[in-house]
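Sorry to interrupt, but I need a hand with the structure work. Leave the record below and I will have a look:
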Amino acid sequence: MTRIVLVRHGQTDWNFARRIQGSSDIALNDVGRRQARTAADALADRTWSRVYTSPLSRAAETAAILAECLGLPEPVAVPDLAERAYGAAEGLTGDEAHERYPDGIVPGKESTDALTERALRAISRLAEHAGDEPVLAVTHGGVIGALVRSVEGDLLPEGSGRHRIGNGSAHAFDFSGGALTLVELAGTAEDLDLVAERTVD
């Protein structure tokens, strides 16, 4: 069994402005860097073998901060951990995107099935390399949300707009025998009923 903790990258200026980032490569801001250090402090009570990361700079810098703070090797980029592509909606706020694409059909937007498939593929590969060693992976709200929904569909209903996965938050999964299990969603298993108060974008 492999314990994989997924960490959402720290805040960017687009996060602060509530703009859809997707595959756009937006850097961390100073708040995001502080969030990464706070995440490292929260993860310091356990030994980790290494850090993997989305290649997008906001995740890669978060991962580099985690690695430095936790004394781990340089993060390894995994392309399948990149955020969902939102196509023509990238750079828009949620309200602007809804106004422009009220039917939800956005040119160039990656499908839910494609996102989930590659996110699961990434997790499988990480587990294959890690074996029984616990690892960290820095990724994005869309990727974490897709994985949560793949195993606990009722926790984060897609498109509800009510749920967010916070910048710098950590979420634990176990991967064993080809199956993924959600262990903790930004807290303990007992906190799962509080998911409605959290965020995914």
Q: What stands out?
A: The first strand starts at residue 2 and ends at 8. Residues 188-201 have pLDDT under 50 and may be disordered.
